[in-house]
UniProtKB/TrEMBL annotation:
<dbReference type="InterPro" id="IPR001466">
    <property type="entry name" value="Beta-lactam-related"/>
</dbReference>
<keyword id="KW-0732">Signal</keyword>
<dbReference type="InterPro" id="IPR012338">
    <property type="entry name" value="Beta-lactam/transpept-like"/>
</dbReference>
<protein>
    <recommendedName>
        <fullName>Beta-lactamase-related domain-containing protein</fullName>
    </recommendedName>
</protein>
<feature type="domain" description="Beta-lactamase-related">
    <location>
        <begin position="50"/>
        <end position="431"/>
    </location>
</feature>
<feature type="signal peptide">
    <location>
        <begin position="1"/>
        <end position="26"/>
    </location>
</feature>
<dbReference type="Pfam" id="PF00144">
    <property type="entry name" value="Beta-lactamase"/>
</dbReference>
<dbReference type="InterPro" id="IPR050491">
    <property type="entry name" value="AmpC-like"/>
</dbReference>
Length: 488
């Protein structure tokens, strides 16, 4: 493991205290429609309330049944320090959920005849923007003799372009681990985030959110790098794919990516609590961060012993200002609330014309393409898709940034998409729980001393476990969501 410059941590507190937390709405929106809903509402409140009081989770849960909002509630704190409770409409950084917005933007431009997703990326890359004398000629590492290999825009959105995983080490070598001696490292700085902050001098465009995708790709030296594999030949989750797509949006429209999103997606889809911000957190123009949870997220540490793990402390998730969303841009710089993200998905499956997409385009955009290793899902384009029972499609995504996890899962009703089911969980707290000596995964509630048995996925990660999968499974169970909409 390479270490980061600890002096950068000093700045953290400065950003934290400058954030106003206005996440204070009093009432919630759960809609009891029937006795069954009352029972499920109660079960959800009991289940999540106990976990939140015991500091195992914190976040916002939303359930949609038959196309109607069935449950919406915040659990835990928006700010532990200021003792502000989470409400269901609080805004969170949604990280990689941004990618689906970017994919939608590209397809909107195709609908307008401004590009074709099967075009090669190079048709839209202006060499002068990157100080290149000649057009970009992407060559595959160790297969340079094959000459230029041109990824298409669609391959960017499918994560199959072959771009080097400069900020993601999860794929690449056959064993998925780059050794220190590997050729790859010459193209990737170890302290990536910090260098970006240094390059921009912790000032100017970097702080103010004015850095463009051109700035970012230039910094990454993207066009000086070889491809990892032939375009289209394999799936590799690399953020630069979406940053390059963001560059194409800016190039084709002559708008900043943020302005493009506001005019073409956020306004027409009525996502009034959704925004794009690429500067340093806490520097957002007044009003933008209304109802925002404080940043970064929290981590609860539990201590192992002979029995269930005992509560020890709650801290901020490790973070430093170099990890600004400037380095994420079209791959992860949006914030939203759980209602808005759900609304976006509903617009996509029920009335995509509102944002200028035909149903055919949505079908193409959500067509499962590249199997995701280790998951029972496929990566379509900025969204993961799997086939549920009865031909129902399950659309899902999890965005993670600064300890937050924003997860949405929608089971699309094939006979009437306006009657689809969904579970959304936005989390701002993750637990670090050791397994018990007997292999069990459980904690003693610091609230009432009771023993809480947990899904084994919640234990064994000292950085904190992502709880959103576990909670989504459990909420689907409580609300009778199976993805099976009956015979069609
Ligand atoms: C809801 O839960 C509370 C406490 O667990 C219980 O007293 C109440 O009867 C429950 N109500 C329903 C409708 O299940
Ligand atoms: C994009 O180009 C392909 C191949 O040239 C063509 O088949 C397709 O119809 C085009 N799509 C659009 C939306 O123009
Ligand atoms: C992974 O594979 C590469 C070769 O592709 C090798 O150099 C490296 O040592 C391997 N790492 C581990 C941890 O096995
Ligand atoms: C960032 O852009 C805004 C206008 O979009 C401008 O008012 C501001 O001065 C810029 N900030 C910097 C540091 O360039
Ligand atoms: C792009 O927009 C800028 C300012 O918004 C303007 O000055 C410039 O002329 C535009 N370029 C094109 C090619 O439309
Ligand atoms: C957005 O809100 C406007 C005004 O309230 C309404 O006319 C429009 O139908 C809404 N659009 C969607 C997609 O809900
Ligand atoms: C959908 O994809 C097919 C095959 O890739 C293509 O022929 C068709 O034009 C696409 N439709 C739209 C609306 O993009």
């Amino acid at each position: 493991m390479k270490t980061r410059d600890p002096s950068a941590l000093v700045l953290t507190g400065l950003f934290l205290t400058s954030l106003l937390v206005q996440c204070t709405r009093a009432d919630t929106q759960s809609v009891p429609g029937s006795t069954e809903n009352d029972i499920a509402t109660n079960a959800t409140n009991n289940f999540l309330g106990h976990l939140a009081d015991s500091r195992v989770i914190g976040g916002v849960a939303i359930v949609q049944k038959d196309g109607k909002l069935a449950f919406a509630q915040g659990f835990g704190s928006a700010s532990e320090e200021l003792d502000v409770k989470l409400q269901d409409d609080c805004t969170f950084p949604i990280g990689s959920n941004t990618k689906f917005f970017t994919a939608v933007a590209i397809y909107q431009l195709q609908e307008k005849g401004l590009l074709n997703v099967t075009d090669v990326v190079n048709s839209y890359v202006e060499p002068a923007d990157f100080g290149l004398a000649l057009p970009w000629c992407p060559k595959i590492h160790d297969k340079e003799q094959l000459g230029c290999q041109e990824p298409t825009i669609k391959q960017l959105l499918q994560m199959s372009s072959g771009l080097l995983p400069v900020d993601n080490l999860g794929c690449g070598t056959p064993n998925s681990t780059w050794s220190d001696a590997d050729w790859f490292w010459q193209y990737r700085s170890f302290d990536w985030d910090l260098k970006w902050g240094e390059a921009m001098g912790y000032t100017g465009n970097w702080l103010s959110g004015n850095a463009t995708h051109t700035d970012l790709l230039k910094f990454q030296k993207l066009f000086d790098q070889p491809l990892l594999h032939a375009p289209g030949s394999q799936y590799c989750y690399v953020n630069s794919n979406f940053q390059l797509a963001g560059y194409i949006v800016e190039k084709v429209t002559n708008m900043s990516f943020g302005s493009y999103l506001v005019e073409n997606i956020i306004k027409p889809a009525n996502l009034s609590n959704t925004y794009y911000w690429t500067g340093a957190l806490g520097w957002e123009p007044e009003g933008l961060h209304r109802r925002a949870v404080s940043v970064p997220a929290y981590r609860t540490t539990f201590e192992g012993g002979s029995g269930p793990a005992a509560y020890k402390k709650i801290n901020r998730y490790p973070w430093f200002p170099g990890q600004s969303s400037t380095a994420a841009q079209a791959a992860g710089s949006m914030s939203s609330n759980a209602h808005d993200l759900l609304r976006f998905y509903n617009v996509i499956v029920t009335q995509p014309d509102v944002i200028g997409l035909s149903k055919d385009t949505v079908a193409n955009l959500t067509e499962p393409l590249q199997p995701i290793p280790g998951l029972d899902a496929s990566f379509a384009q900025g969204i993961a898709v799997s086939d549920g029972p009865g031909k129902a499609k399950r659309l899902a995504y999890t965005g993670e940034i600064w300890g937050f996890a924003a997860q949405i899962t929608m089971w699309v009703n094939p006979s009437d998409p306006s009657k689809s089911d969904a579970v959304v969980f936005f989390s701002n707290l993750s637990p670090a729980i050791p397994f018990g000596a007997d292999g069990s995964c459980s904690v003693v509630s610091p609230q009432d001393g009771s023993r809480i048995d947990l899904d084994s996925r919640a234990c064994g990660n000292e950085n904190g476990a992502g709880m959103t999968d576990i909670l989504t499974d459990q909420l689907a169970k409580i609300w009778g969501i199976t993805g099976n909409f009956g015979s069609i």
